[in-house]
Write a structure and sequence with these properties.
Elements: H1 3-15, E1 17-26, E2 29-32, E3 46-51, E4 60-64, E5 69-75, E6 81-83, E7 95-100, E8 105-108, E9 125-129, E10 135-141, E11 166-168, E12 178-181, E13 187-189, E14 200-205, E15 212-214, E16 227-228, E17 235-237, E18 242-248, E19 253-256, E20 262-263, H2 266-269, E21 271-273, E22 286-288, E23 295-297, E24 306-309, E25 314-317, E26 326-327, E27 332-338, E28 341-346, E29 359-364, E30 366-379, E31 382-388, E32 401-406, E33 422-427, E34 430-434, E35 450-453, E36 456-470, E37 475-483, E38 495-501, E39 509-523, E40 527-534, E41 540-546, E42 552-558
């Protein structure tokens, strides 16, 4: 006897709880037969039910021992009853119900659905999890959130901002989450007081003319109040701009999270001329690098264009590749094929550029598209890139020209139909095993019922019709599984079953049922999967995949779409 059966038996003996396994008959209607000692529905009767199929919407009704059909209801927090909602009852889980003579229905005892939760507290407050894992009132009002759903801090000095000019040390920010500044001249801040672990402070420059500078590790402020900027240089907040700071008690520093509208570290940024210091460059401004190496920047005002400098002059042009594609100047060559995946060799270190899921566009007489499924280590002067070409594209052992890559989901021209990026196997013939041995897995149909899945991440699913016949007069069952072995079960998440039990006299039973299973799989290498079947009965005369009554389909859909 299973442990939960033992517990149920104990409850029946002590509390009068009767275990009722319910079998699905039609949408939201379940029955149970041979349940002792139930001969009628009595007021206060408690039953422990389990379903062989999760309940749907529109209420649930049951009929025990053909006594009559009754509804399963639950209480709302207002004390009134209502029908069960979709997924209130999950298959193979136990739920307690008490029969109410006045309601003429079974009422759910201590349900766990969301509309049964009643937490004492103040209306409009947030809920938090207590140390005993129960939900309680946090004491924090939702007023800290704006109507648009964007977090809005309540502590600020924007109505009367700081106006100090020049250097400021150990600035007091008691009670503030937003620190506003609007001076009549430029100012710099060397530190803020009041730092505690995780405290967030937004610094807003409300001036329309002057810049506010956050200085890195300036000794004008106490060590525990100092600032640390991303590039360890002065962080300049331009007019009408802002920066975010977070306090780290381990380093006893305010960490500036934003790089500011202009960073002053010349080793990293060069200098600005013909523009306004502290403001973003605009069309016509000149940005000079500190050396003569080629650099590329994007300038607001030239929509989508890129300015490129050779150290003495600038040119403006659309980004290379276009349509969210980035062209690559390295040499790409065919390396190997294991259809539907292929390997490309690139004569450069691509490990920091390409990742699994990147889109690839290249030309071999015609334009072809691929998805990167693996990036190898840079070795011997080359990086090996594994790509998947879906149903439409193969990589030929020929020259590759115009290689492009993209991080976008849908760069121009890339086909998005999942059907084009799916490995699929179908079968429409009956595949059976006569006199199957109990609990032995069979690869019914052999090669017709198996799939080879390439390297990468895949959403794997299958549909199959299970058919089993037995000489048993009471129970019939069959299982299916998608496994890496042809006589094993390698993943229980990909296992499904059909089960039927009757209490009338028969000379044998047959059941046919369609099942479905799915799971995300991450494969480091090409892998063969087998669709196997079994029964755990000794009386089964035949088990089969009845693909002639409903087509078997196994899909491996690329999860990078």
């Amino acid at each position: 006897m299973h442990s939960h059966d033992t517990q149920i038996a104990a409850l029946q003996g002590i509390h009068g709880v009767i275990y009722v396994p319910l079998l699905y008959q039609s949408p939201n209607f379940y029955t149970a037969s041979g349940i002792t000692p139930i001969t009628s529905y009595t007021d206060g009767m408690i039953i422990d039910v389990s379903l062989n199929q999760t309940s749907g919407s529109g209420g649930v009704t049951i009929n025990i021992n053909s006594i009559g059909t009754k509804s399963l209801l639950k209480y709302l927090t207002a004390g009134t009853t209502t029908n069960l909602a979709a997924n209130d009852l999950i298959l193979n889980k136990d739920y307690l119900f008490r029969y109410s003579f006045s309601a003429g229905a079974f009422i759910w005892i201590n349900p766990t659905s969301g509309d049964q939760t009643n937490i004492a507290g103040t209306s409009g407050n947030f809920i938090k999890i207590n140390t005993d894992n129960t939900p309680i009132d946090s004491g924090q009002s939702q007023s800290n959130f704006s109507a648009s759903g964007i977090f809005a801090f309540s502590g600020d000095n924007l109505a009367s901002p700081n106006t100090t000019t020049g250097a400021q040390n150990d600035v007091v920010i008691t009670g503030l989450n937003v620190f506003g500044w609007n001076g009549a001249g430029a100012s710099s801040i060397n530190g803020f007081g009041g730092g505690t672990q995780g405290r967030i402070l937004y610094v807003l420059n409300e001036s329309s003319t002057y810049q506010l500078t956050l200085n890195n590790e300036n000794t004008g402020s106490a060590s525990t109040n100092r600032l640390r900027t991303p590039d360890q240089g002065a962080n300049i907040i331009g007019p009408r701009q802002s920066a975010q700071l977070i306090y780290d008690s381990t380093d006893s520093r305010w960490l500036v999270q934003d790089e500011g509208t202009y960073r002053s570290n010349p080793a990293m940024n060069g200098s600005v001329s013909a523009g306004t210091a502290g403001q973003l460059p605009s069309a016509g401004d000149h940005v000079h690098p500190t050396d003569t190496s080629l650099m590329t920047i994007v300038v607001p005002g030239t929509t989508g264009n890129v300015l490129t400098s050779n150290g003495s002059a600038w040119t403006s042009a659309a980004p290379a590749g276009g349509g969210n594609w980035t062209s690559d100047a390295n040499t790409w060559t065919y390396s190997s094929a294991d259809a539907p995946t292929f390997v490309i060799s690139v004569n450069a270190d691509m490990t920091a550029i390409l990742t699994a899921g990147c889109r690839i566009k290249l030309t071999q007489t015609t334009v072809k598209y691929f998805i990167v499924t693996a990036v190898g280590a840079f070795s011997g002067g080359a990086t090996l890139i594994t790509v998947y070409g879906g149903t439409d594209y193969t990589l030929a052992n020929a020259a590759i020209t115009s290689p492009n890559y993209s991080y976008a989901k849908a760069p121009t021209g890339f086909p998005l139909s999942p059907a084009k990026w799916t490995v699929q196997v179908t079968d429409s013939s009956s595949r059976n095993q006569s006199t199957p041995t109990q609990n032995v897995w069979y690869n019914l149909g052999t090669t017709a019922c198996q799939i080879t899945i390439p390297i990468g991440i895949w959403r794997v699913e299958y549909f199959v019709t299970l058919d089993v016949a037995t000489s048993s007069t009471s129970v019939v069952n069959m299982y299916s599984t998608l496994s890496t072995g042809n006589s094993t079960e390698s993943d229980t998440d990909l296992t499904e079953f059909v089960y039927q039990a009757v209490t009338i006299a028969t000379t044998g039973l047959t059941t046919i049922s369609r099942v479905y299973a799915a799971k995300i799989l991450s494969l480091a290498s090409k892998t063969l999967y087998y669709l196997n079947g079994k029964t755990n009965q000794t009386t089964a005369s035949v088990i089969a995949f009845a693909n002639n009554t409903g087509q078997m389909t196994i899909n491996a859909i690329c999860a990078y779409l």
